[in-house]
């Protein structure tokens, strides 16, 4: 069955009502017509660009641990160069010109090849659309799918920068319970099964999830849970928005065998060690996967990509063509040279860099965890789970042990008030960590009250381990002292 027949009902009215940008349609027609004399667009001629080449000096990935060598200033370097008038992975004549909303074809091809290696899928019907980073991609997916009055599913703690985005479009959130292994499939299905459309409106048709190194909890969905969630999505006709900025930052993986690398290459060998993505399970075109270079190259690049079925990809391009326009050309030129340029990193080299980055962050994770144990491990005041991916520790404050902790007969406690008090105490002591309640998704059915309300489970702090050791040492010492003082008050 054609995808536009089976999944078009998930598109919002805004998406269905949006018409293609007519000038972009003509531009694409000109691009696809060999030899045509194009006098239609106001495109400055490349001979007037004050740039003839751009050189990117990057670490060589020939060393065993390229990230460590680069950080210490001991790295061999190489230069990736994009030219206007000489051969390049993508010419600056194209990169610096107006372009397609979906991104330059050469860049999309390179990213599609990367996705084929990292996320081998049973379906070949997936297309890459470039975005201005992760946040831009997520919000565009919400606009593509969200109708005023809709309810979307999400983990009960999630990143507010994303979950705030659709609220102005009158989309509300329904939280799915979490445990140490991430979203609980049985709770997700319970919500869908018990949903009363007469009372609550349309049954949720979108699941937004951060499956690896979930922000803020750090949980990573095991393979079996991912399969269960995908099966539920198929059974209940959901679209999965797979927001996965921490996918490449997975830890505690088995060593990579030289013989496997010699046989299959580094990227394919490493990819087999990583958790399977929802995209790799997608047989029905239900997954919109979002990736980004922000966590693994640099956040200021503001360059990411969405992988989706062709129907959704077409509508995403229409949205981009009439809003943000194409991503910046300099970033696209760099990615093209890095992944597909002659004598460049290529996909195997990119994987070697990211694997080395994983090793670096794993050491920092372990360092911060040891600091926590030294400060609070035997106190009984707090405990922490060691994340399998991502950038954060999720510290549980055992608020029920505080001498001023109270719970009424209905099961409502002062946990939230005490957690806010601790946050202010820690801040005044000189360190900032994110309190758990800022990530909480409030269930409208509970109105934020009652013994099962999210406030009763928000006694957490999120802290990052991506900083330098000196920062972590100072910060955790202050945090530990502040927590002890708080419990003594």
Automatic annotation (TrEMBL):
Residues 1-20 are annotated as: Disordered. GO terms for molecular function: pyridoxal phosphate binding; transaminase activity. Its cofactor is pyridoxal 5'-phosphate. Residues 84-458 form the Aminotransferase class I/classII large domain. It comes from the Eukaryota. Gene3D superfamilies: Type I PLP-dependent aspartate aminotransferase-like (Major domain). InterPro entries: Aminotransferase_I/II_large, Class-I_PLP-dep_aminotransf, PyrdxlP-dep_Trfase, PyrdxlP-dep_Trfase_major. Pfam families: Aminotran_1_2 (PF00155). The keyword Zinc does not apply. SUPFAM superfamilies: PLP-dependent transferases. Keywords: Aminotransferase, Pyridoxal phosphate, Transferase. CDD domains: AAT_like. One of its GO terms (biological process) is alpha-amino acid metabolic process. Belongs to the class-I pyridoxal-phosphate-dependent aminotransferase family. This is PLP-dependent transferase. It comes from Gloeophyllum trabeum (strain ATCC 11539 / FP-39264 / Madison 617) (Brown rot fungus).
